[in-house]
Amino acid sequence: MNYFPDEVLEHIFDFVGSHKDRNSVSQVCKLWYRIESYSRQKVFVGNCYAIGPERVAERFSGLKSITLKGKPHFADFNLVPPDWGGFVYPWIEAFARSRVGLEELRLKRMVVSDESLELLSRSFPNFKSLVLVSCEGFTTDGLAAVAAYCRQLKELDLQENDVEDHRGHWLSCFPESSTSLVSLNFACLKGDINLPALERLVARSPNLKSLRLSRAVPLDVLQRILIRAPQLLDLGVGSYLHDPDSENYNKLVTAIQKCKSVRSLSGFLDVAPHCLSAFHIICPNLTSLNLSYAPGIYDNELIKLLRHCHKLQRLWILDCIGDKGLEVVASTCKDLEELRVFPSDPYVGQAAVTEEGLVAISRGCQKLNSILYFCQQMTNAALITVAKNCPNFVRFRLCILDPTKPDAVTQQPLDEGFGAIVQACKDLKRLSLSGLLTDQVFLYIGMYAEQLEMLSIAFAGDSDKGMQYVLKGCKKLRKLEIRDSPFGNAALLMDVAKYETMRSLWMSSCEVTLGGCKALAKRMPGLNVEIINENDQMEFVGGCDDDRQKVEKMYLYRTLAGQRRDAPEFVWTL
Amino acid sequence: MEGGVAYENGLNFKATELTLGLPGSGETEGQGGVRNNNKRPMPTPETNEEESQAHKAADRGSRAQIVGWPPIRSYRKNSLQAKNSEGEASGMYVKVSMDGAPYLRKIDLKVYRDYPELLKALEAMFKFAAGVYSEREGYKGSEYVPTYEDKDGDWMLVGDVPWDMFMSSCKRLRIMKGSEARGLGCGV
C-alpha cells in the first residue's frame, strides 16, 4: 500500500465511514495517519473534555462535521449540578479562529449559549446542519441568529432541549430567499410560534422532508402545512385538539391522505382522545412511531392505531398501552427492531406494564434488537424466555420502577434473568440493570458480555467483587456508570490502567473514599478524576481523616487536554 | 409506606438530606434507606376513591426521595408533569352531586377506564346501587340514576355514548333519585 500515491489512499479511505474504523486506519503507520487525518470530514468526540478543540482542528484539517458530547449521562437524571460544564463556546471560537470549514454541528448534553449560536452563524459560511440533543443555555434569540445568518441551512433539529422561549419571532428570521431547508424540528419549544411565518417557510422549502412541530401549532395550520408539503417523510404533529365533526378535521383527513411518503410519525403533544383515525391511512407505511409524548391517547385509540402499523421498525410509547396493548404490537409489528416503553406517571411510581408485555413482544417480534422498558415488575422466568426468543439484542435497558424489587413471583434476585440475557445476546453493547441484584449478576456479565460497551448500574451488588467482575471481564467496556451500590476503593483501584481504555467512569453514592480517588489520580495522570462536592458536603479539618470521607459523586475520564480550566467551584480535579 | 417518619408538607427532608453515611445507616427505621432494607410495599387496591388518592399522594412523596429515579430525562418528566396538571385544570375533575346529600364530591375522570369502573366508584362514594344499565331501559332496579351535564348544558344518562366521548363532554355528574330519576331512566 505504501507504493500507492496519496490520492489513491485517500480515495480508498473515503469508503471507510465509521469513526471507529477510521481511528483504526490512522494507527497503521505514519503515512496512513497523515492521509487519514486530512481526509477525515466527520469527527466524533465522545467527551468534549477528552481533547482540546485546537488540537482537533489542527489534526483534521478537512473537518466539516463534528459531534460533541458534554455532560455525563446521569446528568439527564439531575445527578449533576447545573454549571458543571460542557460549554460549546470554546469549540466554536477555536474553530472560527482556525478557519475550519464547519458545515455540521451535533451536540448532546452541552451548554449552548446564545453567544455561541451567534458566533456559529456568523463564522461558517457553508454551515448546513445543527442538531442539539438534551442541551440547554440558549433562547429563541440564538435560534433567530441561526435562522438569519446561516444562508445554507438545511437542518435545524432540536431534540428535548431546555430552551428559554422569547416567543416566536425566530421563525420569521429565515430570510425570504432561504429555500434550502430539509429538516426542521422545534417540537421542544414551549412558547408561541409565528404561524404565518411557519406556513410561508414551509411553502418556500420544496426540499423539506422532516418537520416536527411544537405544541403551539394548531390543527388548522397543520392541515395547511400538509397540503403544502405532501413530500414529507417525517412528521411531528404539534397540537391535535379538534372536534371530529368540524370542517377543519375533514380538511385534515384529505390533507393526510395526500402524504403518501410519511414514514415516521411523532408528536401529538396535545391530543383529544379520539379521532386518530385520520392517521390510520398512513399507518401501513410507517416505519417509526413515537407517541411517548402523548399521554392523552387512551389505550383503545392507541391499539386501533397500532393495528394498522404492520411495517413498524421503531416504536416509542407510554406504558398506558398496557400488557394487552403490547400483545397487539407483538402480533402486528413483525418487523419491530426497537421498542421503548416509558412510564406515563413517573411520580406515582406505578407502571402499567409488567413482565408479560415484554414476553409477548419477544415472542412476536423476532427482529427486536433494542429495548428500553419501564415496568412495574419483572421475573427471572420472563427474562430467560425473552433471552431465548430474542438473542439479537444490542441494547437492553430494563427499569423496574421500584429499583430493588425482586422477582415478582419467587422473590429471588434477578441475577439469573439478566444472566440469561448476557449469555444469549452475544452482540450486546449496552445494558442497564434494575431490580434486586447481587454480585452474581456481575459475575455473569463479566463472563458473558464480551461486546459490552456501556453498563448502567443502580442499587445493585453486595461487595467490591461485583464491580471487579465487570472490570476484569468486559474487555470492550467504554462507559461505566454506577449509583447507590456498595463498591469501594478495592474495586476502584483494582485495575487502574483499564480506565485509559474507557471513555469514562461515574460513581455516585457508593463506598469510594477521597483517599481512594486521590490514589487513583496519582497513579493515572492521563485521567481527570473529578469530585463533585455539592453543598460543601466534604469537610477538611486537616490530617488523614479527610481521606476517609466517602465521595458522593466521582466522575473520571481519560483526556489529552489535562485538567479542565472551566470547572466550577464545587468540582475538584484531583 | 415508610413508617415513623415525620413529613413536613408531604416532604421528607431527612431522607433527602445529603450525608456521608451509608444510605439507611445511623438513622431510624429505613429513612431514605434505599438498599438492603428498602421494602416499598405496593399500595393495596382501594375501593374507596378517596383513600387511593391519598395513597397516590403518599406514593408521590416517597418516590420523590430517590433523586434521579426513575431514570427519565427531566425534559420528559417535566412535560408529563405539565400534562398531568393541565389535565386536572382542564376539567377532568368533575363535581358529583347526589340528590339529598348535604355536600358535593369531586372525582377525577381520568382515573377510570370505562363506565363500570366509574359506577363502582360512585356507588362506593355515595353508598348506593345504580342498577343494571341497558340502552333500551336505562338503569333498571334502582331508585338512583347517574346522569351528567354535557357541553351543551343538557342532562344526559351516563352510559349512552362511548367512554371517550363521555370523558371529553362531561362537565359534572348528578346522581338523581326518586320519581325524577325514574322518568329519565325509562328510555324516554
Automatic annotation (TrEMBL), chain A:
In the record, biological process GO terms are: auxin-activated signaling pathway; pollen maturation; SCF-dependent proteasomal ubiquitin-dependent protein catabolic process
Provide the Gene Ontology terms for cellular component. nucleus; SCF ubiquitin ligase complex
Task: Enumerate the spans annotated as F-box domain.
Answer: 4-43
Query: Where does the source fall among the domains of life?
Result: Eukaryota
- Major subcellular location class: nucleus
Signal peptide positions are none
The subcellular localization recorded is: Nucleus
Q: In which pathway does it act?
A: Protein modification; protein ubiquitination
Pfam families cross-referenced by the UniProt entry = F-box_5 (PF18511), Transp_inhibit (PF18791)
Q: Its Gene Ontology molecular function terms?
A: auxin binding
Keywords of the record, alphabetical order, are: Auxin signaling pathway, Developmental protein, Nucleus, Ubl conjugation pathway
Record keyword Nucleus present: yes
**InterPro entries noted in UniProt:** COI1_F-box (IPR041567), F-box_dom (IPR001810), Leu-rich_rpt_Cys-con_subtyp (IPR006553), LRR_dom_sf (IPR032675), Transp_inhibit (IPR041101)
Gene3D superfamilies for this protein: 1.20.1280.50, Ribonuclease Inhibitor
> What name goes with this protein?
F-box domain-containing protein
Species: Linum tenue
From TrEMBL, chain B:
Q: Where is this region: Disordered?
A: 18-63
- Lineage top rank: taxon: Eukaryota
- Annotated Gene Ontology cellular component terms: nucleus
Q: Which GO terms describe its biological process?
A: auxin-activated signaling pathway; regulation of DNA-templated transcription
Q: Where in the cell does this protein reside?
A: Nucleus
For bias kind Basic and acidic residues, which ranges apply?
A: 52-62
Q: How does it associate, per the subunit comment?
A: Homodimers and heterodimers.
Which PANTHER family does the record cross-reference, listed alphabetically? AUXIN-RESPONSIVE PROTEIN IAA17, AUXIN-RESPONSIVE PROTEIN IAA4
Q: What is this protein for, i.e. what is its function?
A: Aux/IAA proteins are short-lived transcriptional factors that function as repressors of early auxin response genes at low auxin concentrations. Repression is thought to result from the interaction with auxin response factors (ARFs), proteins that bind to the auxin-responsive promoter element (AuxRE). Formation of heterodimers with ARF proteins may alter their ability to modulate early auxin response genes expression.
The UniProt similarity line reads: Belongs to the Aux/IAA family.
Q: What is this protein called?
A: Auxin-responsive protein
Q: To which species is this protein native?
A: Linum tenue
